[in-house]
Write a structure and sequence with these properties.
Layout lengths: L20 H12 L3 H10 L11 H24 L6 H10 L11 H15 L3 H20 L8 H29 L3 H16 L14 E6 L5 E6 L4 E5 L5 E5 L6 E6 L13 E5 L4 E4 L8 E3 L7 E6 L5 E6 L3 E6 L4 E7 L5 E6 L5 E6 L3 E6 L5 E6 L5 E6 L5 E6 L4 E5 L4 E6 L6 E6 L6 E6 L3 E6 L5 E6 L8 E2 L4 E2 L24 H12 L4 H110 L3 H17 L6 H29 L2 H13 L3 H28 L6 H15 L6 H5 L5 H11 L3 H26 L5 H12 L3 H21 L8 H30 L4 H28 L8 H39 L12 H20 L15 H27 L23 H22 L3 H10 L9 H22 L6 H22 L5 H11 L5 H4 L5 H11 L6
Antiparallel strand pairs: 1-2, 2-3, 3-4, 5-6, 6-7, 7-8, 9-10, 10-11, 11-12, 13-14, 14-15, 15-16, 17-18, 18-19, 19-20, 21-22, 22-23, 23-24, 25-26
């Protein structure tokens, strides 16, 4: 029977009997009996209920049928609704319908069915409608939260344009002043700051004055700091002169407490009926005052009835800003005589306001603990000052234009930076709330804070350190800080000498007699009447203060009573509500405890249900497993890859559903086998697709392999194909390079790699480079065998490596992909490390190049010494240039990794070049005896060329040292992942470290020894010093040669004349000694062009040749002294060769020696040697006095001269 066929029902009988057949028969017997028997049977049978009611099944079955049809219709509709098979999407749809995304024990299939049933009951468009409603709600919320503006009056537009024109030039001037301040030396600024800090730290009270009979609430200085305006709770404002604190004028007009006063800038004191001051009171009135008039010239009543706490004039003087307790601040235009801006924005009352010196912005602080910075030119709030915990009572701008200070009830002062839009420092200023803060107006170097802890403090605006604490007030309220004056307000301050301790009234044991006597004794009044009148006036003032305080307190208490009563009623209602809710919670807790076991049973049943559903689904999938596997095998046999992939996906889902059923391992093996077959079928097409670069086909295979969980294998296919393609390109490029001399083949291959990597960044691996055949090392080696200029080729290959590394690094950075350090290190190693073998060969190649360069200079072809010297002078710069080129090549090719071997090569190169100087010296020495007037000049020129070479090597060594130290530092901090060449060999590392230590030692020694001219090239000193010394000796020998010729012509005087005893004046110098003297006299003229003012290069050579040159400022003096020493030595040598001397010959020889001494002394400024001086003394001594005059002389010399003169010893 179908569900749609009609079912016929018969009407039942009206009487329905309850019970068994036995009871029915017993009942009939009872009805047929009578009397007592009937009653007895009834008792035995019991009460049998009978009823005449009947159950109308027709209506009930009609309702069931309608419900059943409705359920069938709903299920039919649900089957037609398409629901996503993605479980994530299903959960998202349930969340959009405000339904739980997962029920306890619910699986993906049940979740899909639940979503389908919900959509069938709510409608297929339920999700779309929900999304549209949510978007509409968000849009409405966004519109409600957006900032709105309304059009202001024309006066506001005029005011903002005027402020813009006013503020821009002032801002420009402020920035120019700041730039000029930067040019001031820091030492000058520091000294000024120290001086100002000393002045501030030495501040003392200048004067003290009773301000009013009521507390003084606020004060401010005028621009010249010669006037002080005070405000009082009495409603009277007073003008005082500074520094004598004399009352100048009273301003009466306020009917209640005045909370703030302000001066207008640049108003002369003699100006009448011009607004010069302003004051604001607690009743909301603002009054404008002029000098010389005790009544206000204008009133502003726009704030009534709200309190005006602070007010200030705009720097231009045209506008007045007021802070009001209606949670707003206002801007008044004194020229247009109207309110141009009524600005809201604070949640509570606005207490303070301050303008920037430029006049472009202002800052306000409120009782909501927040501050706001407003742009007066646009009306925008450009900065929100959030950070204080309690109300803000004071704000001020620094003269620099971008810093602000705020004083708060949380006992702190915060410094804000308008440029950074954040606080830069918090000063824990006081132990009680801060009432105000002010910056120093001229430079902003300091700021002062006032607090209810009865002190005011001065702070440095740079280090935020306290500089001075100003104490003495009973209660300190807002200060005003001008250039040189600091004013604070107190409730009532008197002179210290007349101050009376009013605290005595608070003591329980107060005695009026003791109080009066102690006050009289402490103040030492001469006249009792004056003391009594003074004391009475002070007591009256004190009583007035107490009365005022009591009145204010009582008014406040009376005003707060209704609020307190209301708060108490609210508390009682909340307490009753809380009690009722607590009782309800207790009842619910008891119910929960009773239902705990039921919940546990429900949870166990739900778990069991879930397991049964999973088992049911698994059995269903198991029934269809054979059919799926056979269909998959048929598709694979027909090579239907896409169909097989879809069928395999269904098979994998079935495998998951049968997770806990028997035979799971066999099913998993069957699925893996199917994956392998499908992969084998698809692999040829995959390789072909990757080879031709078909992105569309590749995406299909990505999807297919992703469904099979074989994406790693697909990636391996891709890498293999790409690697094969790159290998083919590399082989082709290498083959072309073997048949040509193009050195750029490596760079060409790198370009191919970069194009490939730019398209496929993820395929960049070190294995791509390491697997190339032939390897890059082999390809480069083969190329170098065929190429003549090997160094040029290596330079090109190194440049190609560096170009590839740098470009690849840029690609990685621009692509946004971040590779792990391990992969980066492997990639860097693959790019650079293979080149180490050529870096090792670099030293030998560089040495060959430098040697060949030295041969091209042609220094071995000269025979004449003069030509050799000239060639050496021309070749110094060429040799140093060749060394510089080598250093540049080292950096280009090896990135200075081979700088250690290069230093060794350069040492050999310079030694080889110095051999040319040694050869020139030998040529000069061989021609020394040949007469040549220019010989001295040639020797000097050779020394000068050698010194020039030494200085150039020193300069070049500094450049090498700088690069060596930089290379060492880079080696110490370089990472394995850095893209550059690295020093890998241990011997290179140790050599680099050794050279670094040598350089540091030389730098530590400094200039202690002039010979320590080099560090890295210190070994050259062993070659240079002998060459310099030999050239110097050759020069000295050429100069001394004429002297040597003359001194060898000493001839003893005839002995026959020895008997005559001639006086001393009869002797004259002989010819040989006069010739020596004449030569010595002309010698400075010959040496003057070369040695008296030598160049730095010549001096350096002479200092290396002989240390005496480094101890004298004039090299000519040193050379003359050396000639003199040599002359004395040769003279002594010839004297020793004389056999015997008569007295006359002795006197003649002594005369010759004295002549030589006079030449040395008068013309050369030198002294004879001590021995030859002793010879002169001994030669002139008479035989009788010889022994006494020889005292102190060399004994050997005394004996020799005595034997020459044939003097008989008396001993």
């Amino acid at each position: 029977m179908s569900d749609d066929e009609e079912i016929l029902f018969t009407r039942p009988t009206k009487t329905i009997h309850y019970g068994s057949l036995e009871r029915q028969s017993n009942l009939l017997d009872i009805q047929s009996s009578s009397g007592d028997d009937k009653d007895l049977k009834v008792k035995e049978l019991g009460q049998i209920h009978t009823s005449n009611e009947y159950f109308d099944l027709e209506n009930e079955i009609s309702k069931d049928k309608a419900a059943l049809l409705e359920e069938f219709e709903r299920r039919k509709k649900a089957r037609q609704i398409n629901v996503s098979t993605d479980d994530v999407e299903v959960k998202k749809n349930l969340r959009q319908l405000n339904e739980p995304i997962c029920l306890f024990g619910e699986g993906p299939a049940e979740r899909r069915n639940r979503l389908r049933e919900l959509l069938a009951s709510l409608g297929e468009n339920a999700i779309t409608q929900k999304i549209a409603e949510e978007e509409e709600r968000k849009q409405l919320q966004k519109e409600q939260e957006s900032t709105w503006y309304h059009e202001g009056p024309e006066s506001l537009r005029v005011a903002r344009i005027w402020i813009a024109h006013y503020s821009l030039p002032r801002a420009k001037q402020r920035l120019q002043t700041a730039k000029e301040l930067l040019s001031v030396p820091s030492a000058t600024k520091a000294s000024r700051m120290v001086e100002l800090q000393k002045k501030l730290q030495s501040l003392v009270p200048v004067c003290s004055q009773v301000g009013d009979t009521r507390p003084v609430s606020h004060c401010c200085f005028n621009g010249d700091s010669n006037l002080l305006l005070t405000a009082s709770w009495s409603g009277v404002c007073k003008l005082w002169s500074i520094p004598d604190c004399e009352l100048v004028q009273n301003f009466r007009g306020h009917a209640c407490q005045v909370g703030g006063v302000a001066f207008r800038n640049n108003v002369p004191r003699d100006a009448m009926n011009e607004v010069a001051m302003a004051s604001g009171a607690a009743d909301g009135t603002v009054k404008l005052w002029a000098f010389g008039n005790e009544e206000s010239i204008a009133d502003i009543t726009g704030h009534i009835p709200h309190r005006v706490s602070r007010l200030t004039f705009h720097p231009s003087g045209r506008f007045l800003g007021t802070a009001c307790y209606d949670a707003s601040w206002r801007l008044w235009d004194l020229e247009q005589k109207q309110e141009v801006l009524h600005q809201e924005g604070h949640a509570k009352a606005v207490h303070c306001i301050a303008f920037q010196d430029d006049g472009s912005v202002c800052v306000t602080g409120g009782l909501d603990a927040f501050g706001r910075v407003w742009d007066l030119r646009t009306g925008r709030c450009i900065m929100f000052l959030e950070g204080h915990l309690k109300a803000i009572f004071g704000v001020d701008f620094s003269p620099n234009g971008f810093q602000m200070a705020t004083a708060s009830e949380d006992n702190t002062c915060k410094i804000w930076d308008l440029r950074r839009r954040q606080p830069i420092y918090t000063i824990p200023a006081h132990t009680n709330l801060l009432s105000d803060v002010k910056y120093q107006k001229n430079s902003g170097d300091f700021l002062v804070t006032a607090s209810y802890d009865n002190t005011a403090k001065i702070w440095s605006n740079r280090t935020w350190q306290p500089l001075k604490t100003l104490s003495g007030h009973d209660n300190v309220s807002p200060p005003h800080f001008q250039n040189k004056n600091i004013a604070g307000e107190n409730h009532m301050e008197k002179e210290n000498k007349n101050k009376i301790e009013m605290e005595a009234f608070e003591n329980d044991n107060f005695s009026a007699i003791d109080f009066i006597n102690s006050a009289y004794t402490a103040n030492e009044y001469e006249n009792k009447e004056d003391f009594v009148s003074s004391l009475v006036s002070e007591l009256q003032i004190y009583v007035q203060d107490v009365s005022a305080v009591l009145e204010d307190t009582s008014q406040e208490v009376i005003g707060n009573m209704p609020k307190i009563v209301k708060d108490m009623d609210n508390l009682r209602q909340e307490a009753a509500t809380l009690q009722r809710k607590m009782r309800e919670i207790h009842v619910e807790i008891a119910q929960v405890q009773d239902s705990g076991s039921c919940l546990a049973n429900l949870e166990r049943l739900d778990t069991l249900k879930t397991k049964l559903q999973i088992a049911k689904q698994g059995l269903q999938e198991s029934d269809g497993w054979g059919r799926l596997t056979s269909e998959l095998e048929d598709l694979l046999e027909r090579n239907d890859i896409l169909g097989g992939c879809e069928k395999l996906s269904i098979l994998q889902k079935s495998l998951i559903a049968q997770m806990n059923l028997p035979g799971q391992n066999e099913r998993e093996m069957h699925v893996e086998e199917a994956k392998n077959k499908l992969e084998a079928l698809a692999s040829p097409q995959v390789v072909k697709c990757f080879s031709i670069g078909d992105a569309t086909e590749a995406s299909k295979y990505v999807d297919m392999f992703g469904k099979m969980d074989r994406l790693p294998q697909l990636k391996q296919y891709y890498r293999t194909v790409q690697k094969t393609g790159l290998q083919g390109q590399w082989q082709e490029i290498v083959d072309l390079a073997e048949n040509s001399s193009d050195v750029r083949f490596l760079r060409e291959f790198y370009h191919h790699l970069l194009e490939h990597f730019q398209k496929q960044v993820s395929s960049m691996t070190a294995d791509t480079l390491n697997s190339l055949q032939p390897t890059r090392e082999v390809a480069i080696t083969n190329f170098l065998k065929r190429h003549t200029d090997k160094l040029e080729a290596i330079s090109e290959f190194s440049a190609a490596n560096q170009f590839f590394g740098v470009t690849l690094q840029k690609y990685l950075q621009n692509s946004g992909s971040t590779l792990p350090k391990e992969k980066l290190a492997a990639l860097s190693k693959a790019i650079y490390d293979y080149f180490q073998v050529f870096i090792i060969q670099y030293g030998a190649l560089e040495q060959n190049l430098l040697s060949s360069h030295l041969v091209t200079l042609g220094l071995g072809n000269q025979v004449v010494a003069l030509e050799t010297v000239r060639s050496l002078g021309n070749c110094n710069a060429k040799v140093i240039q060749a060394a510089s080129n080598a250093l540049q090549r080292c950096e280009t090719i090896t990135q200075n990794c081979a700088i250690g071997p290069l230093v060794t090569v350069l040492n050999l190169f310079f030694r080889e070049y110095l051999d040319k100087y040694k050869k020139a010296q030998k040529q000069l020495d061989a021609t020394r005896n040949v007469p040549n007037v220019n010989f001295l000049q040639i020797c000097t020129t050779l020394l000068q060329h050698l010194g020039d070479f030494i200085l150039q090597v020193s300069t070049f060594e500094e450049e090498v040292t700088e690069k060596l130290l930089a290379t060492y530092e880079q080696m110490c901090r370089q990472e394995s992942s850095s893209f550059q060449y690295k020093v890998l060999r241990k011997q290179d590392v140790s050599e680099l470290k050794k050279m670094k230590n040598i350089v540091n030692e030389r730098h530590a020694q400094g200039g202690e020894n002039a010979l320590n001219v080099w560090s890295l090239f210190a070994g050259l000193l062993e070659v240079v010093k002998p060459i310099c010394a030999e050239i110097h000796d050759t020069t000295l020998a050429s100069v001394f040669a004429p002297i040597e010729v003359h001194l060898r012509n000493i001839e003893p005087t005839d002995l026959s004349s020895s008997s005559s005893d001639l006086p001393d004046y009869s002797f004259a110098p002989q010819e040989y000694i006069t010739q020596v003297g004449q030569y010595l006299m002309t010698l400075p003229q010959h040496l003057e062009p070369f040695l008296l003012s030598p160049s730095d290069t010549l001096r350096r050579s002479l200092e290396i040749a002989d240390e005496k040159y480094s101890q004298s400022s004039t090299c000519g003096d040193v050379l003359l002294s050396l000639i003199a020493e040599e002359c004395c030595a040769l003279y002594m040598e010839n004297i020793y060769k004389i056999g015997s001397l008569s007295n006359t010959a002795a006197k003649q020889l002594a005369t010759d020696i004295e002549y030589l001494a006079s030449v040395f002394d008068e013309l050369l400024g030198l002294k004879l040697g001590s021995q030859i001086q002793q010879v002169a003394i001994l030669l002139r001594a008479s035989p009788e006095k010889y022994l006494s005059l020889s005292a102190g002389c060399d004994p050997k010399l005394v004996t020799t001269i005595r034997q020459m003169r044939n003097i008989i010893s008396s001993e």
